[in-house]
Design goal:
single chain, 148 residues, alpha/beta, Ribosomal Protein L13p, Chain: A, 4-stranded parallel β-sheet, two-stranded antiparallel ribbon, 6 helices, 6 strands
Length: 148
């Protein structure tokens, strides 16, 4: 007995991609990121298949209101390398939270997506905004509750 493996074109004919609106105000960063990553991967769909892009679009608003537990705001350090000698860059979580909170939320969510060929395509379906205003009203994103 063969198992059914849906192809991308099969999923496209059966289902339209939904748009979800997630309010990050007062949410813990890691817990919010796991729930949004599941939506982007499509794990909430009954037709989830790891090798097929079946996730939905997600709009995260109020990234400025995100919470970090414990002493992470002062102790967590974000690092990246430019590729040049001596190009290691570091920034504390508090500085990133004050200047670019949407980048902090985006990095947490994208770090929880699988590192494969679909990673970039899933990342394109994520939109993060620091405030409540967003330009995706025409897509009519449905608000979803993420438990605190």
């Amino acid at each position: 007995m063969k198992s059914y493996y849906p192809k991308g074109k099969d999923l496209a004919t059966h289902r339209r991609e939904k748009w979800h609106l997630v309010d990050a105000d007062g949410q813990v960063l890691g817990r919010l990121a796991t729930r949004v990553a599941r939506l982007l991967m499509g794990k909430t769909q009954p037709t989830f298949t790891p090798g097929v892009l079946s996730g939905d679009h997600v709009v995260v608003i109020n990234a400025r209101g995100i919470r970090l537990t414990g002493k992470k705001l002062d102790q967590k350090v974000y690092r990246w390398h430019s590729g040049y000698p001596g190009g290691l860059k570091e920034v504390k979580a508090r500085h990133l939270y004050d200047t670019k909170p949407e980048q902090m939320v985006r990095d947490a969510i994208l770090g929880m997506l699988p590192k494969n060929k679909l990673h970039k395509r899933m990342a394109k379906k994520l939109r993060v905004f620091a405030d409540a205003k967003h330009p995706h009203v025409a897509q009519q994103p449905q608000p979803i509750q993420v438990e605190a």
